[in-house]
Every structure is written in C-alpha cells, then in structure tokens.
Amino acid sequence: MQRREFVKVCATSASAALLASCRRNDQPRPGQIKRVLVLAFDGLDPRIVEQLIASKQLPNFERLAQQGSMARIATTTPPHTPVAFSSIITGTDPGSHQIFDFIHRDPNPSNGLPLRPYLSTAETSETSYTPAVAGWRLPYAGGETQLMRRGKPYWDHLVAAGVDAEVYYLPANFPTETPSGPGRFRSISGMGTPDLLGSYGEFTVFTPNVSRKGRTVGGGRFVRLALRKHRGTAELVGPPNPLLQPDALGFSEPMKLALNVVRDPKHPVAKVELSGHVQILAQDEWSDWLPVDFPTVVPGTTVLSSIGAQPSVRGMVRIFAKQIHPRLELYVSPINIDPLHPVVPITVPSGFSQQLARRHGRFHTLGIPEDTKAL
C-alpha cells in the first residue's frame, strides 16, 4: 500500500471515530463524565492531509476542521519520533528533555570500551555482581531500568489535580512511571520498549538456504535449519546470559533454545516444538504467542531463587510458516517481553499487563510491533 493510501485509510477511520465522540455542542448530561481524547498519528504529513481534504477524499477530517480548527505545528530538530513526542509530553525542547535520537551513545563507558550505543529513552543501570567463580557470577545490586526522558509529563499535572488519565503506546514512554496524585493513571509503554535482546526488534528466519554460520542482516538473522528425513533442529538465540562472566570486550555468551521441527512428507504442514510448547502449522499460518524460557543453566537453582536471581529469562514469540515444501522456512518474531511475566515493568500499574493478558490473551509488547525490517 502506498503511503498516501495508508494515510487516507487511517485518517478516514480515525476521524470518523472522533466525530462520533466529539461533536460540537455536545454537553455532558448530569452524572456524565466529560472526557478528552487525544489521538496521535506518527509521521502524518500535513501536506498529504491538506491535499486529500482539498480533493474531497477525507470528508471526516474536513468536517473536523470545519467544526473545530486545523493548523500546522512545528516539529523538533531532528524531527524524529522519540524527540518530537518527548516535546509533546513535556512541553519542552530537546535541550531540556534530553532525547535527541532513537539511539544514544555512552560518551564515558565505565569499562573503557568504545562508545556503547543504547536506546535513547531508557537505560539499565549497571549491575553489581559477586566475584566470578568458574566463569559464573551472581547479581546483588543494580540492574534497574530507568526512563531517560527529562521534564514533567503533562499527565503528572492531570493526576495531581485529580483528573484520571490513560496513556497507551505513546513513544518515548518506557519504562512507564507512576505519577502522584488523587487521579487514576493507567499506561502501556510504547515505542522505546525493547525486545528481550535489548533492541528495537530482532527477528529470526530458519532456512536451509544459508551457510552453517548463518547470516546477520539489519534487523535480524538467518539461521540454518536443514531437514533430514523431514526432521531438523536449530537454535533460537536469546539474550546474553546475565550470570556468565563477560569476555574482554564485555560480551557474554547468549542463552539459546532448541527449535525442533517435524515436517509432513507430503502435505504443507509441520510440527514445531519450542521451549516445551508444540504448534502444528500449515503453510502461511501464524502460531499463537509461545512463551519461551531461556535457562541460565547455573548449578543450584534453589540457591538462585533464594537470593532473587532468576533461573530463566521469560519472553514470547510467534512463528510464521513461510514455506513448508520444497524448502522449509520458518519466521520467528522478535522475542517480546511476556505481558504475563514481564522481566521489566511495561505498564502502570505494574500488574495491568497481566490483567489485560489474562482477559484478552498475550499481545505485542515491543515498542515498534510493525515488523517492517522483516520485509
């Protein structure tokens, strides 16, 4: 779909919803609660909207402009999503909220390594570990993820004044923070929420059409999966093992899970087993969200539990059977944070993600769920 067509479809649908709920002269009846809805389109080009309105292709937007107002506003420098939304959230410029790009670099890394990149809106504080024994270590302090955006968000003022506020999937709002005040606040973090690898989303494609070493591309990796008598095994690479001593360059061995496949010899169907969960997939079919547990493989897990260290790291993936015959190709989504067992808080209140997942099922938690890199 061309960008202009995408804008037209989205804008028409959303403006119809806005018109239904925000009509002129609608006054709340006694006992009704007056609400304000703010809907943001990331990257919406005002020139395209104006041209489509002029050509009578966005009637609902035209009605909104006639009943209320429509005007262009300036953007930030640079005009990047986390920068601009941080200004919207705080009412300040980048010099105040300190978000300048999607990715920042640590100008003074403590370990003396070259400038280390990290996601601009959030950073995890350095974890303190016990001395390593036979390459293993245990955490005892630190490791907290902190919001790097500075300035007071507008919803803090609302909640402090007793006004309820809900913020869903807003960029530059991870990790979510709880404001103080009598108003109720609920939030789901948006763009900036990483996958389990700490990135904006890294996919995996399992295919025999790659060397044994695999291949890394922008946004993901290709892993060799060759079948023998319609059976095969490969490894899904997870996050670095936090309990292993890093090497001289600061890298730890990643945790891995076996992905086992049995293909029907004739029909386009395969059985996929991952982390103890089995899915039967036909060609062009998606799996459900599958929880995946990456074991730290440390001797004495009971000791780990007693000091708060986790014997495994939980995430979730979906699998797409791109092709079954003649060559098996499986696409595995980025490893999302599991809303039922989040490794870091992704909602306010902290248990909100569990409530939603229990009621409606698991859902994307990655801050950019549109997996355009896989295309």
Molecular structure report:
By secondary structure, the chain is of the alpha+beta class. It is built from 8 helices and 20 strands. It is globular, with a radius of gyration of 24 Å.
Summarize the structure in short.
With 375 residues, this protein is an alpha+beta fold. 19% of the residues lie in helices and 26% in strands.
Helices, by number, come to 8
Question: In what range is the share of β-strand residues?
Answer: 25-35%
Q: What is the averaged pLDDT score?
A: 85
Q: What helical percentage do the residues reach?
A: 10-25%
* Distance between the ends: 13 Å
Strand order of the largest sheet: 10-11-9-19-18
Order of helices and strands: HHHHHEEEEEEHEEEEEEEEEEHEEEEH
Radius of gyration using CA atoms only: 24 Å
Largest sheet: 5 strands, mixed
Q: Poorly predicted ranges (pLDDT <50, ≥5 residues)?
A: 15-24, 302-308
